[in-house]
TrEMBL record, chain A:
Family per similarity comment: Belongs to the binding-protein-dependent transport system permease family.
GO BP: any one term: transmembrane transport
PANTHER family given in the database record: ABC TRANSPORTER PERMEASE PROTEIN MG189-RELATED, ABC TRANSPORTER PERMEASE PROTEIN MG189-RELATED-RELATED
Regions crossing the membrane: 12-34, 73-93, 105-125, 137-159, 180-205, 238-259
Organism: Glycomyces algeriensis
Protein name: Sugar ABC transporter permease
Domain of life: Bacteria
Gene3D superfamilies associated with the record: MetI-like
Main localization of the protein described in the UniProt heading: membrane
Membrane topology: Multi-pass membrane protein
Ranges for domain ABC transmembrane type-1: 68-259
Keywords: Cell membrane, Membrane, Transmembrane, Transmembrane helix, Transport
UniProtKB/TrEMBL annotation, chain B:
Coiled-coil annotated residue ranges, if any: none
Keywords tagged on the record: Signal
Annotated protein name in UniProt: ABC transporter substrate-binding protein
Signal sequence bounds: 1-25
InterPro entries: Bact_solute-bd_prot1, SBP
Length: 273, 421, 301
């Protein structure tokens, strides 16, 4: 099963065909973004010639550069905190098998249920009272608290399947809990850390309403807010919206590729161990 | 002594009360910048505000005006900020009722400063004044534009076919036939964006309903008039008649408004009925040399009957929680000056609300001014509707009529029900 | 990461591993402050007449709930939400799993394919909704493609026909979410030890058989996670629906979340919106709990 057989070849062709179908909406997105106002329209709405100036114009007019920097650090700090807090919490919840840990686990799961509208105003009023509206730190805290259920759930599911031998031998060696966790357990969690990292990063990067509510007008706009520079009251400048969107998702794609490698490496080392 | 059970319950109530107190204790400081020389202004109207602030900054050395433009979710965000005490110093509000950032709702809650004693207050025309005044009689906002609904025609495309913008109802139907024969769509309709469902009904009822009975909404409140038993029925039937006559593009319900804009720009669609500000939006995204004509949309066969559906547009108020009251009031006075009004309206693509003695050159403004001077203007009906469920009932109803699931009579019956909710 | 032996391992003495309780403290505190307390407050206000503006309110008991439950529009929205959740959960997971199996194989383009299938996931959901709206107009890309490939008879009014609109939205949601499920399945598949599959292959099991009886049981964790996220996420589905159809035409694609939004911001009945939010929470809770118990029992069996 390690060889490249004719079956693999068929599979490859089939997958590439599916990939093409998947990409059709993407092609249209690019076609609209690069539409030349006087060009001749062809396949999927691509014009000839293409107009690449929209990408640059959208980048400049929406101040995408600073927004990406804001989004990057808000997302980065949030994800780092989520991973640190959720992995330790999930570890404690799965390794301490008592009634209250089970109850607490379900309490965290309950966080999945709320539709967002319930807490919106009370939460905003609390942050307004603390004088933190307009402060990106508010968005970070909301992200970290809000994604705890998701991250703890993913970590718990994978932790249950993780053999305890490593930890046990480390405990016998007399390692401190914190040290033992970071040097023994956390590296074993690499694949799930990669998954949690990319999926929370994605959701935080793309979140529109929280930054809109908390950061509107300030100097700390995030990338999706910049995309909406070109949406106006009665309509939108679609070539510009889609151009801005393309430039805004590049960082998250790079993160995905890096995370994929991270997951792979974790896989290899996890198996060997 | 309290039993354990009661004590626990009291504890829960106390906790709830404490949480509530925390949540509701308003923030004392106004929103926006801590810098005394920075004035923050919230708008959802695009660049128009940015176009006028330079003059204010020049007249007030050291002062900076920060514009926060958020077309998406403007009402939700601003209403939340008002409640949280974090709203900007000057905020765009909506005349009449209708949403949480409207004069009659936010104003009645005490969120907007009373500016009745301002020098410019007397220049606000009677028709606008009512919509900008709270129920306590406080004028709270300065109107910027007078917004109307009419037909926007691609003049180049009309010239090519030798057509002119229709001035009577029969001409409208003829226009549709002529367009169809030339392989064009007469009027683009993008009902997938629900706000567009109301445009043609408002344009038609201006002439059919509100020209005949300006106090129609009042009569509805008193119970002496209903949608169902009024020329609203005729208006919706004419809407359907247009559809039957092939005036619109294929399946309006599945068509987004942005596609209509593009089709008018390219000339594949000859016209659309929309708000006046769309003249400049459509022109801005179109090819060079695109010429648009704006005309009132007729509903009868006598051009002299035609009323223009028009009302007070974006208006600005001072946040009552601001600590820069004087600067903010000064800014409102600046907005009320004729030069500012015209600069704003030109950028917004509409007619200035308080032009004073100055004339506004744009074709839109001239048309609107003509109708205003002749007294042939009717307000947008929804600004006088007492219930927030009437307009959504119209939106849903129009879509249902276009998908063949409802009739004008049913839609109006539902609207009557919503009106008295 | 999950060697197969862990599953067969006896529930061994965990006495040696007792992480300190304070490991939980920061997570619990933040969760309380950001999620539980504000939602508790929201729930509290659903029993009052607070309109979300200003600071006056009075308790009204269950009046808001009574008003909401007697509204016939809510029923249609609940049915739509169940339909959407069912279709999307099945579609997204079947496609996501197949894609994960595909890109986990030896195909040469697997790295590229992983990127391609993930691309839709990175788009801001609201903008992705607009993109699909653009594709599905009467003269849009899809109808154009059907026309040019001789399938003109399949042309539809994808978003304008009340009978079709919900399915069109499902397709867009699945397109955006399949890569998401794929990533989670892939993480599970990476942990399936090659030895187990090779042993089965030597025993003469075909590819389909190996997948069904060896791979699937081993990625049960990923299946549980995916199904739960999918069901819960789609019961609360808002962004794509709202940007594609605003719940229309005339309510044909209204979901519970769009109803809550409209009640709060169009009808300005904030207390009723809170009551609807609470009911939605309860429904998601019941369904999520039942599903979690069912799948988890299977997973741990």
């Amino acid at each position: 099963m390690n060889r490249y057989t004719w079956r693999t070849c068929c599979l490859e062709i089939a997958l590439l065909a599916v990939a093409f179908v998947f990409m059709v909406p993407m092609f249209v997105l690019v076609a609209v973004a690069l539409r030349h106002p006087d060009g001749v329209q062809g396949f999927l709405g691509f014009t000839w010639p293409l107009d690449f100036s929209n990408l640059g114009d959208a980048w400049v007019e929406s101040a995408m550069g600073p927004s990406i920097i804001n989004s990057t650090w808000i997302t980065g700090v949030s994800v780092a905190l989520i991973i640190a807090l959720a992995s330790t919490a999930a570890y404690t919840l799965t390794r301490r098998t008592q009634h209250w840990t089970k109850g607490l686990f379900y309490l965290f799961l309950a966080g999945f249920l709320f539709p967002g509208q319930l807490a919106m105003l009370p939460l905003y009023l609390a942050f307004a009272k603390l004088g933190m509206v307009g402060n990106p730190l508010a968005v970070v805290l909301i992200n970290v608290g809000g994604f705890m259920p998701f991250a703890i759930f993913l970590y718990s599911v994978f932790l249950r399947d993780l053999p305890k031998e490593y930890e046990e031998s480390a405990t016998i060696d007399g390692a401190m809990p914190m040290r033992m966790f970071w040097s023994v357990v956390f590296p074993l969690l690499r694949p799930v850390t990669g998954t949690v990292g990319i999926l929370t990063a994605l959701a935080i990067w793309n979140d529109f309403f929280t930054p809109l509510l908390y950061l509107t007008g300030g100097d700390s706009r995030t990338a999706p807010l910049s995309v909406f520079t070109f949406v106006s009251l009665y309509g939108a400048d679609w070539p510009m919206v889609f151009s801005a969107l393309i430039t805004s998702v590049v960082p998250i794609l790079i993160a995905y590729v890096l995370m994929q490698r991270f997951i792979m490496r974790g896989f290899a080392s996890g198996l060997k161990g | 002594m309290l039993s354990t059970k009661t004590r626990r319950r009291t504890g829960a109530a106390a906790l709830a009360a404490a949480l509530t107190a925390t949540a509701l204790a308003g923030c004392s400081t106004g929103g926006g910048s801590d810098d005394a020389n920075v004035l923050t202004v919230a708008t959802n109207g695009g660049d128009a505000m940015k176009a006028v602030i330079a003059a204010f900054e020049e007249a007030n050395p050291g002062v900076t005006v920060e514009v926060r433009d958020s077309p998406e979710n403007y009402q939700q965000v601003t209403a939340t900020q008002l409640t949280g005490g974090t709203a900007p110093d000057v905020i765009q509000v909506f005349p009449g009722t209708g949403n949480n950032v409207s004069v009659k709702i936010a104003g009645d809650k005490g969120f907007l400063l009373d500016v009745s004693d301002a020098d410019w207050a007397d220049t606000v025309p009677e028709s606008s004044r009512d919509l900008l005044t709270t129920d306590d009689g406080a004028l709270v906002a300065v109107p910027m534009t007078f917004s109307s609904i009419g037909g926007i025609y691609n003049q180049g495309a009309l010239d090519e076919l030798g057509l002119t913008a229709p001035a009577t109802w029969t001409e409208v139907l003829q226009f549709c036939t002529d367009a169809a024969e030339a392989g064009k769509v007469a009027y683009g309709l993008g009902l997938s964006d629900t706000w567009t469902t109301q445009l043609i009904p408002y344009a038609l009822t201006a002439t059919l309903v509100y020209a005949e009975d300006p106090d129609f909404a009042q009569h509805q409140v008193e119970g002496t008039a209903t949608f169902a038993d009024s020329p609203w029925q005729t208006a919706l039937e004419q809407y359907v008649e247009m559809n039957d006559a092939g005036c619109f593009n294929e399946s309006p319900n599945g068509t987004p408004y942005s596609e209509v804009q593009d089709a008018v720009r390219s000339g594949d669609t000859l016209a659309t009925v929309s708000v006046a500000a769309e003249n400049s939006t459509i022109a801005a995204g179109g090819p060079e040399g695109l010429e648009l004509t704006y005309a009132a949309f007729p509903a009868t066969d006598d051009p002299a009957d035609t009323f223009l559906s028009a009302t007070t547009g974006p208006s600005f108020a001072v946040n009552a929680a601001t600590d820069k009251t004087d600067l903010a009031k000064e800014f409102l006075a600046f907005l009320a000056e004729p030069e500012t009004q015209i600069a704003y309206a030109d950028r917004y693509g509409d007619t200035a609300a308080l032009p004073g003695d100055m004339a506004q050159d744009s074709a839109v403004a001239q048309l609107v001014t003509g109708y205003v001077n002749e007294g042939r203007v009717a307000s947008w009906p929804d600004q006088l509707w007492p219930s927030t469920t009437v307009q959504p009932a119209l939106f849903d109803g129009v879509q249902a009529v276009f998908s063949g699931q409802s009739t004008p009579a049913d839609v109006l019956a539902t609207m009557d029900q919503a009106f008295h909710e | 990461m999950m060697p197969i032996k862990s599953r067969s391992a006896k529930p061994v003495r965990t006495a040696g591993i007792k992480p300190p309780v304070w490991f939980l403290a920061p997570a619990v505190l933040l969760y309380l402050a950001i999620v539980l307390i504000p939602n508790g407050q929201g729930l509290f206000f659903s029993f009052t007449d607070w309109d979300g503006l200003g600071s006056t309110w009075a308790p009204v008991g269950i009046d808001n709930y009574r008003a909401v439950l007697s509204d016939p529009n809510s029923l249609q929205a609940i049915l739509n939400t169940f339909m959407l959740t069912l279709i999307v959960t099945i579609g997204q997971n079947v496609i996501g799993l197949l894609l994960a199996l595909g890109v986990n194989s030896r195909v040469k383009s697997r790295h590229l394919l992983r990127l391609v299938f993930f691309l839709p996931v990175v788009l801001t959901p609201i903008v992705a909704g607009y993109l699909w709206k653009y594709l599905l107009t009467p003269n849009g890309t899809l109808n154009g493609l059907l026309e040019s490939t001789g399938l003109g008879a399949w042309r539809q009014n994808w978003l304008g026909d009340p009978e079709i609109v919900l399915y069109s939205i499902c397709a867009a949601v699945i397109w955006q979410g399949a890569g998401y499920s794929m990533v989670i399945y892939l993480a599970g598949l990476q942990a399936v030890p090659a030895e187990a599959l090779e042993a089965a292959a030597i025993d003469g099991a075909g590819a389909a058989r190996r997948t069904w009886s060896i791979t699937l049981p081993l990625i049960n964790g990923a299946i549980v996670v995916n199904l739960l996220l999918c069901v819960i996420g789609n019961l609360k589905q808002f962004d794509t629906v709202f940007s594609m159809s605003e719940g229309g035409p005339s309510g044909a694609s209204e979901t519970m979340a769009t109803i809550v939004y409209k009640t709060a911001f169009t009808y300005l009945e904030y207390p009723n919106a809170l009551a609807q939010g609470a009911i939605l929470t309860l429904l998601v809770g019941v369904i999520g709990f039942v599903q979690f118990r069912l799948t988890q029992r299977k997973a741990l069996a």
